[in-house]
Design the sequence.
């Protein structure tokens, strides 16, 4: 087991005052709170910070920790508590962080006995009560095609289940979920009874899955509508044409009107997200130029410039 | 039993159809009704139809998820209600902006033909 340097976690010195420790904790708790931070390891950092503060805020625990820090670490950085070690302070939960000891590390468990030995937060009061299991909230990232057409996805999450002694043990649970067609960003799916099991015969909690959509290289989403930018040639824009455009459910032919300009939007009714009120696909036209012209084409452009010399594309800029 | 055996296939029958009464949302959030009522007063969460009779209030999953977020922030960062309301509003704004930046970056990439 590796030694956890709680002082380093909070970024304070060994001689830090309780005030300095509290200040450092508050700052880091705000920074790494999983509801605030978008850093990938925010949740782990937040747990570490909470665990470090749980120990260092309490003079008794801090003294024990300091002692272990001195005598329990080995030369290779690993940690083994001295033989017969037993914490005098133990863990009661509560306090400033109202910490949930189920979240704490094996290192904490080894030193202070942790909350996993009790039913909940060290207390074990839940065991005698009939309680509904906790709801679990999870997020699920889908590709646009998956959300559009529906799919089967595997969802993994952690639930806290009581063991034979009524201790709450975290367990990884995996479900295969059939996602219905037409799920959009931010929508929730509820799986009844798939959350944490109830305690004392209480009913199980539910699993709520919030859908997230991974960015697509061609399509973007606005509500129920799907947007796609489709390049067209200058002659297709000038003369009008029938062009093939992609939709999430396959290719379709679209009539580009004569005299189309860049940014012109064409609406394909019902080609957006499926559902009771299906969305539309919006095709945004973009006039694209060939990278090179032949001498003949250049000559034609020159002729065109002569014929259309009355046209000033910058008239709105008053130049 | 192997971990593979534990994989269960479930079909979703309830997409966004769930609503919760004031009592149910309190049970699920493990909090008092007074706290939920205050969050409604501060505009942090809202029932689907803001009828004066609280017993008729119905909340959707988004409101439940927001209530739980508010409870976590209050517990972990010791925020009072006005601070909580403001933090959640700012977090929403940040999230909207992040989404907008992602969307615009994606549009730029599409327009650049990347």
Sequence:
């Amino acid at each position: 087991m590796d030694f956890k340097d709680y002082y380093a976690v909070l970024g304070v010195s060994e001689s830090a005052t309780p005030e300095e420790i509290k200040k450092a904790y508050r700052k880091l708790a705000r920074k790494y709170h999983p509801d605030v931070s978008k850093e990938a390891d925010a949740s782990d950092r937040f747990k570490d910070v909470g665990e470090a503060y749980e120990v260092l805020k309490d003079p008794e625990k801090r003294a024990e920790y300091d002692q272990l820090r001195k005598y329990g670490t080995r030369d290779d950085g690993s940690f083994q508590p001295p033989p017969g070690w037993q914490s005098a302070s133990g863990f009661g939960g509560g306090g400033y962080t109202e910490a949930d000891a189920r979240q704490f590390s094996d290192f904490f468990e080894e030193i202070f006995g942790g909350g996993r030995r009790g039913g909940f937060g060290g207390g074990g009061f839940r065991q005698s009560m009939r309680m509904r299991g906790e709801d679990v909230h999870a997020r699920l990232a889908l590709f646009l095609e998956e959300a559009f057409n529906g799919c089967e996805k595997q969802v993994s999450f952690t639930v806290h289940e009581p063991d034979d002694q009524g201790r709450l043990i975290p367990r990884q649970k995996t479900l295969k979920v059939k996602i219905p067609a037409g799920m959009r960003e931010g929508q929730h799916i509820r799986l009844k009874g798939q959350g944490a099991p109830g305690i004392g015969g209480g009913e199980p909690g539910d699993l709520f899955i919030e859908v997230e959509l991974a960015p697509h290289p061609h399509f973007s989403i606005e509500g129920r509508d799907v947007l796609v930018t489709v390049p067209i040639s200058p002659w297709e824009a000038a003369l009008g044409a029938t062009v093939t455009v992609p939709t999430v459910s396959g290719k379709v032919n679209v009539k580009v009107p004569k005299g189309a300009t860049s940014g012109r939007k064409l609406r394909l009714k019902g080609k957006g997200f499926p559902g009771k009120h299906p969305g539309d696909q919006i095709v945004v036209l973009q006039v694209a130029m060939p990278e090179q012209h032949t001498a003949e084409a250049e000559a034609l452009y020159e002729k065109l410039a002569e014929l259309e010399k009355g046209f000033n594309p910058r008239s709105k800029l008053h130049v | 039993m192997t971990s593979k055996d534990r994989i269960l296939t479930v079909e979703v029958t309830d997409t966004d159809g769930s609503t919760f009464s004031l009592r149910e949302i309190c049970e699920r959030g493990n909090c008092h009704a007074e706290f939920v009522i205050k969050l409604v007063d501060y505009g942090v969460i809202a029932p689907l139809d803001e009828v004066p009779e609280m017993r008729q209030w119905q909340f959707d999953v988004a409101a439940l998820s927001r209530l739980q977020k508010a409870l976590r922030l209050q517990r972990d960062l010791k925020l009072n209600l006005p601070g909580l309301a403001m933090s959640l509003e700012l977090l929403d704004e940040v999230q909207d902006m992040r989404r907008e930046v992602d969307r615009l970056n994606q549009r730029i990439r599409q327009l650049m033909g990347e």
